[in-house]
Every structure is written in structure tokens, then in C-alpha cells.
Design brief:
By secondary structure, the chain is of the alpha/beta class. The protein is built from 14 helices and 30 strands. It binds alpha-D-glucopyranose.
Length: 592
């Protein structure tokens, strides 16, 4: 795991060493560009599919899928669409371009893929028309390096997919790498000389390929839902303006992704594989993988379970966003069976509870709750239970709006549930047996718009995790950190670290059931660390535990909340390498 600062140091070293590393692996997340949410009510028609659909399929498919992260007998680990890149197999341009002769995805079936997306409950598809490698997965007239002219396949899969999406009532959008082109002279991180050996710049690529291809993908395939530009890097602003103008002209209803750059897109795309923990205002999307790579990687069988997919989908919608989940078809055009299986399984659940996902708004709690998460439609709350409370009692802290009815949603009928309030808490008793095996859903009919006091409720029936992200911090540093496990496999956390003596991270919590709670902390750091946990005006506990450079969970001990009510809880780092001790979360579990 390379922490961001170390990566920057590495890049500077590479630059000093004169290795042109910077141009190649400039902080990928910095390459995602500056994004602002701009879609206004007036643009509602343009963003409808995005706003209402809330769930879509991302498809990374290209020449790199034929390689599948296995090149000349060697496996490369990381995001498969970067196989040509120096960070992966570092394949010379001419050698990479020769692979077109072998790329013949005869098993590609656009209808099957569109049906899979529809069965999965997705509302539109965004597929890679051209990725960073510069290979066009459609019939381009401005570059012969395309699937129709250069491969034995000779068919235009985008034409077939446009037809299939139409027949399945799905929107279709195209991913287009407008800045990076690793095989066209002048392209971002591409060759510096053209075929006559003359030095060329970005303008050469832009005027001879990029602009014309954006015209092509926005005119040749019927209505487009989204044009998904990526890694704008250092593309000139006026070029982005012109490209966005081309989309507006040819596809007035299409959205432009935030990664167009310079805030010229219509909405924000968070970091790769990032599901936020706190509500995000405006129009935005999470893009995620079904395993750890966008494009097909032969070894990557680390699939998300249907429940994990639903958890990340509901969490994204519960934070106010749209979830776009990726598949990476193989070199023969087929979708890995396990990827299809998990999408279908999750899709079955969505068909049982469409009201939870489509056209819904963010949770009034602004963050997840210990047993799961919430989406909203008018005066209805949909409580999605991912961690069943052991006594079947669902606790809601701080709900101010009166509950008229509570139902357990079921396929055939909905079961009325008993609701009680106690102080600042609403309690809902679930029946002893529940037929829904994946994620049970409770619908609350409220007596008006949901209003919530966003305190952190410590749940007596299920473990409560509170993130360092939500702490008030003094004498320490609170910051976001993103890093790559395998190349391109992004992880994101907001940590509290760089502790000073007496530094504190504090949270306001609400306790319903007094008594002892076991406290664990999740952190990383160096060697043994002594942490303290305090209840203001109450108990102090501390303990020494080891640490590792991976975020790991360690027990601190039991702490007593003497009576129901509101408390200020704090964590401090007392001994050890205070600078490197990096807190991610604390966990409370009631001790029976
Ligand atoms: C990053 C990667 C790119 C991938 C994209 C998906 O920008 O560079 O390969 O297509 O994320 O979000």
C-alpha cells in the first residue's frame, strides 16, 4: 500500500532521475480533474435518467480485454485497461497495436448484455468507446485503429449495443478518454513523434483524432444518455469547452461527466470505487467494480456478493448519488458468468423493492445507521437492514417526525409493525422470522417530511461504528486519504492522525440503554500505541495495542454509560508514534 505522500515523493524522485514517470502515473486521482455540480432544475430533462435511475452499468471492454492481464505468459496485477502502460506490462506502441490481429470477440452478444443490465435493475449503460490505449471500439473514420477496420471481428459492437439498449428500454452512453491516448502521436501520455518522425503536440492529436471522434460517437449511434470523459489531466480548457459544445449540439439531452475537466461537466464523479460515508450535495455518481478491476483480468475472482452490491448501491443512493457498477467482458466478448450471476441476484431484490432505489432521495440521517441505511420518497422512509439486530429490534435515533405506520415489506403482503418511542429514539419490533433473506426492508409512513436530529445513536442491539470523519478534532489532523492497493484499485478514508499530546477526536453520542459497551478502534500506525477513550464527565479507559500499516481493528475495553442520554465521547492517542497513529473508526458493542 503506497500512501499518497510517499507516492508524491516517489514521483519527484523519478523526475529527478529524469525518468518521465510524472507524465505517466501522475496521481491518477489528480487526473480526475476539478468538478463542480452544475445541473440545474432547468436541465432536469437532461439528467432524468441519471437522477431517477440511480443505478447503471459501466462496461470496460477493449483490446486490453483480449490480454486480460496475462501478457507473454506473465500476469500483471491491477486495473486491466492499463495493461499497456508503464505501471503494468509496459508494451511498446507498435507491439500493442499488432494485437488487433488476434482480437476477435465472436461471442459478443449485445442483446445478452442489454438483457443482463435490464435484469440487474440498471437503467442505462456507459461503455468504453475509446479508452486511454486509443483503440476505438466502434467504426471510426478518422482512425483505422478501430475494431471494424483493424480486427478479424469486423463488426461495430456499438451499433449492436445501441439497438439492444433501445429494445430493452435502456439509455446508452459512451466513455471517451479525451486527454490520454497512448498510441496516437500527441495524445496525453502518448507518442511524441508522428509517423514521419516529426515532433507533435497535443493539438495534433486533438485536431486529427479526438475532436472528430467525439463528433462520431455523438452522431452515429442515436440518442446518448451520457458522454463520460475521463482523466482530463492537462488537456487545454478551450478543447474541453469545444468537446462539451459538440455534445450539447449533437446530444442536447446527454449529460457530460464531471471528469471532462475545468468544472465543465454536468455532475461530479467521486474517486474510483468510492462510496461516501456522508451525504454529498448536488448531482454525483459513484463508479464501482464488481471485482477489483474495470477491464477483464483473468485472475480476478474477488467478486462482490449480491448483498455487498446492494449495500453499496443503497448506501450511494442513501448519500444522494447514483451508482454505476462495472463489468469487464472477456476477450471473446462474453461476460464472466460470476459477474452476471451477482448482478442478476441483486436485480431480483431490486425487482422486489424498486421503490427503495428509483427516484429516491438521500437519508435524513446523512450517514449510515448501525443496522443499515435509509432512502426516502416523499414522506416514506425505506429502512434497509444489512445487519439484523440480534433481538429483532430496530432502533432509530433522533427521528422527530411522527411515524404513522410501519410495515415490513414483503413480496406478497406487507406486515404491520409495532412502533414505540422512548426519549430521542424510535423502536420498531421486527417479527421473529422474516422471509426476505438478503436485505429486509421496513417502510415507515411519516406524518410529514422526515426531520432528524443527526446525532450518533449508540445502538444497544447491533454494533455501532462511528467514523473519524465525523469527529470534532483538536490537537490532531483530520484529512482524506486515498491510496491504491493493487494498481488502480482505490481505497478512501478520512483519518485523524498527527496527534499532539492532549489532542482529541470527539463525537456527540446518544445512548438509549445504559450499561457497559465494548470499545474497539480501527487504525493503522507504527508499533505499539496507547489509546484513551473518555466520556466527558464520566469514565476514562486506555489500553496499549499493536498496529500495522493496514487499517485493523483492536480492542480497547469496556466503558460504562451510566444512564440514557447524550454524551461527549473522545479518543486520544497517549503513547507511541503519535504522528503516524491514524484513526479510522471506533466501534461500540453493548455487553449483555
Ligand atoms: C480511472 C482509470 C481508468 C478507468 C476509470 C474508471 O480514471 O484511469 O482506467 O476507466 O478510472 O472510473
Amino acid at each position: 500500500m503506497i500512501e499518497m505522500n510517499r507516492m508524491r515523493i516517489l514521483l519527484v524522485v523519478l523526475m529527478i532521475l529524469g525518468v518521465d514517470g510524472f507524465a505517466f502515473s501522475q496521481d491518477m486521482d489528480k487526473m480526475w480533474g476539478e468538478q463542480v455540480m452544475k445541473l440545474k432544475a432547468a436541465d432536469a430533462e437532461r439528467g432524468q435518467l441519471f437522477e431517477e435511475g440511480n443505478y447503471a452499468m459501466f462496461i470496460h471492454w477493449g483490446l486490453y480485454s483480449h490480454i486480460g492481464n496475462l501478457y507473454k505468459g506473465k500476469s500483471y496485477y491491477g486495473i486491466g485497461e492499463w495493461i499497456m502502460n508503464r505501471n503494468m506490462a509496459n508494451i511498446p506502441v507498435d507491439e500493442y497495436k499488432l494485437l488487433v490481429k488476434e482480437f476477435d470477440p465472436v461471442k459478443f452478444d449485445a442483446n445478452k448484455i442489454a438483457k443482463l443490465a435490464a435484469d440487474a435493475g440498471m437503467k442505462y449503460i456507459v461503455i468504453t468507446a475509446k479508452h486511454h490505449d486509443g483503440f476505438a471500439m466502434y467504426h471510426s473514420k478518422v482512425s483505422k485503429f478501430n475494431i471494424v477496420d483493424a480486427t478479424p471481428f469486423g463488426r461495430d459492437p456499438m451499433k449492436e449495443l445501441a439497438k439492444a439498449c433501445k429494445s430493452h428500454g435502456l439509455g446508452l452512453g459512451f466513455y471517451y478518454s479525451h486527454n490520454q491516448d497512448w498510441t496516437f502521436p500527441g495524445g496525453g501520455n502518448g507518442p511524441k513523434k508522428n509517423a514521419d518522425g516529426r515532433n507533435v503536440d497535443f493539438k495534433y492529436y486533438y485536431e486529427n483524432k479526438c475532436r472528430a471522434q467525439v463528433e462520431e460517437i455523438t452522431t452515429q449511434y442515436g440518442p446518448s444518455a451520457i458522454v463520460w470523459f475521463d482523466t482530463p489531466g492537462r488537456i487545454p480548457e478551450e478543447d474541453v469547452k469545444e468537446l462539451v459544445g459538440i455534445v450539447r449540439k449533437n446530444q442536447p439531452k446527454a449529460l457530460v461527466s464531471g471528469r471532462a475537466g475545468y468544472g465543465l461537466g454536468d455532475y461530479q464523479t467521486l474517486g474510483d470505487m468510492e462510496v461516501p460515508h456522508e451525504n454529498v450535495e448536488g448531482i454525483w455518481e459513484t463508479v464501482d467494480t464488481t471485482n477489483d478491476s474495470w477491464a477483464y483480468a483473468w485472475y480476478d475472482n474477488y467478486w462482490k456478493t449480491p448483498k455487498e452490491i446492494l449495500h453499496r448501491l443503497v448506501s450511494t443512493v442513501g448519500r444522494g448519488g447514483t451508482y454505476m457498477l462495472n463489468i469487464g467482458p472477456q476477450g471473446d466478448g462474453t461476460v464472466p458468468e460470476l459477474a452476471a450471476h451477482i448482478l442478476r441476484k441483486a436485480g431480483e431484490w431490486i425487482r422486489r423493492y424498486p421503490q427503495v432505489v428509483y427516484g429516491t432521495d438521500a437519508s435524513p440521517w446523512k450517514h449510515a445507521l448501525p443496522w443499515g441505511d435509509v432512502t426516502v420518497k416523499d414522506n416514506s422512509l425505506f429502512l434497509c437492514i444489512f445487519d439484523m439486530p440480534k433481538n429483532g429490534r430496530l432502533h432509530l435515533p433522533g427521528l422527530k417526525t411522527k411515524v404513522k405506520f410501519a410495515y415490513l415489506l414483503g413480496v406478497k403482503k406487507k406486515t404491520r409493525l409495532e412502533v414505540q418511542t422512548q426519549g430521542n429514539w424510535t423502536k420498531i419490533q421486527l417479527p421473529p422470522s422474516i422471509s426476505e433473506k438478503i436485505v429486509p426492508v421496513v417502510q415507515l409512513e411519516l406524518d410529514g417530511q422526515p426531520e432528524v436530529d443527526p446525532c450518533w445513536g449508540i445502538d444497544p442491539s447491533v454494533e455501532t461504528t462511528i467514523l473519524a470523519q465525523f469527529a470534532d478534532v483538536t490537537g490532531a489532523k483530520q484529512e482524506k486519504k486515498s491510496w491504491m492497493e493493487k494498481f488502480g484499485e482505490w481505497k478512501h478514508v478520512v483519518r485523524v492522525w498527527k496527534w499532539e499530546k492532549g489532542g482529541k477526536a470527539s463525537w456527540q453520542v446518544d445512548v438509549l440503554k445504559p450499561g457497559y459497551y465494548n470499545v474497539d478502534l480501527t487504525y493503522n500506525g507504527k508499533d505499539r500505541i496507547v489509546w484513551g477513550v473518555d466520556i466527558e464527565g464520566g469514565e476514562h479507559i486506555q489500553n496499549q495495542q499493536n498496529s500495522s500499516h493496514n487499517y485493523q481493528r483492536f480492542p480497547i475495553g469496556w466503558i460504562n454509560f451510566p444512564k440514557p442520554g447524550r454524551y461527549k465521547v473522545s479518543v486520544s492517542c497517549i503513547e507511541g508514534d503519535l504522528a503516524e497513529a491514524s484513526l479510522k473508526a471506533l466501534h461500540f458493542t453493548f455487553v449483555d
